[in-house]
């Protein structure tokens, strides 16, 4: 077996392979998927000299550990955490040379939720519809990591990284999400729309890669009944029958039948990947730009 | 036709009927192929078509208002035939809803020509229209519906591409592979595909 590989020693709570996802297949019912904190994934790829489409590992809350088989350049970013190589402290948010046979441990997130590990050459599992991302809604792409999984790596990039350290935004202590109302805000009472854009919500423990679920005041409908299924966008704020807004993230279903009260600005979505359960959330209505 | 902005980069076009949605979808595909429409995703659904990844949605909405949308054009390609063993556990219930015997359900389902109105729920799951009668969903959804189940709900028929929970009425089984990501195309059915169900074996 090639030594361009990583052996998973501790898979962690939920660690998946992620890249830029597989947009363009929504009409077939295929979610876009891809790294939830895309800027963090792009930064760690830059640190190791990978191209932006290289696949990285996305951990959830408690990190993961892998054993190298050859000397590799790696970088850990996203949620801040302790990084060790064979038990010795190593830098977070910076490129790092790890010798073959070493144990690289990505510790639990000190704040935030998802850490990202980039390895020179990228994780080279078989792509599905042009992407190596694990899609937890439809099961496309590789299964989440399990202990003893062996992950093949791509050939190391020719170019050396031109950066040593890159600035990372800190995980949010409060999530402020700019939204434009619609397309179905008229399915809610005026009071509910005001509640949505003025009251405080918190991130629910039921949040995942499909959606950021919230707890807080229920939003009352003005129009009863079901909406015929319609196409859904990334960042759509769907309101299921319990009245609590759900922000659709990368693995969201491509169509849905619950009304979408608003859509979160794309620039505000990466922060949702790092908002731990209990984080306060405010939805701030802004005027449409397009 | 009504256009609703969705965030800053998408438009939801709402029409009155499923047929209008299919006609609009066909016209949007035609215009995109002709280089007249720049959009990342065109997602048809029951009464809408979503245009996602649009640079100037309000300008596009103005242009759309002046478009003539012809009725659904006949597709040049062949009808996809899906072999079915009509052995589903809900065949008797559907027969009761339609006030006919089980053989009548088989005749009704296999005589109709269907068209994939839209996909969703799972990769490769198509919502097929063309059913002459409707049937309600099951009161209690099943926790696991086997892959290849041929099913009915509301005005739609469909085939489960993989095992999943589901509330549709199961009338049969097919060995056709609805979704295989190693195949090109991965999906047997995509929006606009014409479909016929062909009975095989004795129910």
Structure, explained:
The complex is a heterodimer of chains A (290) and B (203). Chain A is mainly β. In chain A, 8% of the residues lie in helices and 30% in strands. Chain A is built from three helices and 20 strands. A seven-stranded mixed barrel of chain A has the order 12-19-16-17-14-13-20. In chain A, strands 7-6-9-4-1-11 form a six-stranded antiparallel beta sheet, with no helix packed on it. Chain A has a five-stranded antiparallel beta sheet with strand order 2-3-10-5-8, covered by helices on one side. In chain A, a hairpin with a 2-residue loop joins strand 6 and strand 7 (88-90). Chain A is elongated, with a radius of gyration of 20 Å. The longest helix of chain B has 16 residues, at 18-33. Chain B has two domains: 2-65, 2-Layer Sandwich (Gyrase A, domain 2); 80-199, Cyclophilin (Beta Barrel). In chain B, a hairpin with a 6-residue loop joins strand 6 and strand 7 (126-129). Chain B has helices spanning 18-33, 57-65, 91-97, 102-111; strands at 2-6, 10-14, 41-44, 48-52, 80-84, 114-119, 126-129, 142-145, 149-153, 156-159, 164-166, 169-173, 194-199. Chain B is an alpha+beta fold and 203 residues long. In chain B, helix 3 crosses helix 4 (102-111). The chains are: A mainly beta (290), B alpha+beta (203). The interface between A and B is large, with 36 and 41 residues. Chain B: InterPro entries: CT_C_D (IPR003833), Cyclophilin-like_dom_sf (IPR029000), PxpB (IPR010016). Chain B: Pfam families: CT_C_D. Chain B: It comes from Streptomyces spongiae. Chain B: This is Allophanate hydrolase subunit 1.
